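Progress against Task 2.4 (sequence-to-structure conversion) is shown through the following example record, which the project officer requested during the mid-term review.
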Amino acid sequence: NAKLVAFEHTRDGPSPPNTLLFVPGLGDGLLTAPYAQSLADAIPSSFSFVEILLSSAYSGWGTSSISQDVEEMAQCVAYFKSLRPNGKVVLMGNSTGCQDVLGYCSFEGSRPLVDGAILQAPVSDREAFGFVFPPEDYDKNNELAQQMVKEGRADEMLPNHVSLSILGARCTARRWLSLTSPGPEHAGEDDMFSSDLDDRKFQSTFGVAAKRGVALMILYSGNDGFVPSTVDKEALVARMEKAFVEAGGLLSKRSGILPGASHTVKEEGRVREELHERVTDFLESVEKGNVGKT
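Structure tokens generated for the chain above:
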């Protein structure tokens, strides 16, 4: 697709044989992740850092979906696999980009395989929206979106006041319900990381990714402002990792909580350095084929 863009950070020297493809979060785009440039400089010279600009970037998320993102990511993976046929390809997502990465590794359908996945700040949009929006407004918005879907208007825009003022983009009823994933079913496509999901849900995502041979590292920000204080981060990450490992997955030994980190690791200094170190270690392990062994 000629309208899709990938921005590759280049360095002096020969072209690296391996590729780290980065997918930013909701509302983000090229170079908006605070750590993008520093991480591009820090990773091993055998990897190239590439930012993917999906059609859902910036304000495009309101009319897109995880499934559409996955289809576009598959085109990008295929391109870099053709460019570097003997190299490794690792996906890394921040925030909602984590849904894209896990969806790529677990959704049904045929697409080019990747060697590794990094989930940085895999938080629940449903739980985050629950305290970003006033409770009464949140419930009314869900009811309005559900009614529009029942009337066959799932791809029509919700009124501006629903998402534009707080989230910076207009949103279809379908995407709103994917993100907010109302109960009791919690069936939203985006709803992959909520703390109240049962083990079967994690098995259908993390477990499937494991069976497809994808190595994994989770980097859950210790001071993530989009995670309710009622959520036990350590317990939640442990459940995700358990679903992955029990299905035979190769989990990085440095997977887990990233202490002191905000949602997008905007902190410089030691917190950012630890992000760099963990990602570097994971990429080196993927390249050597020893993830989880050292």
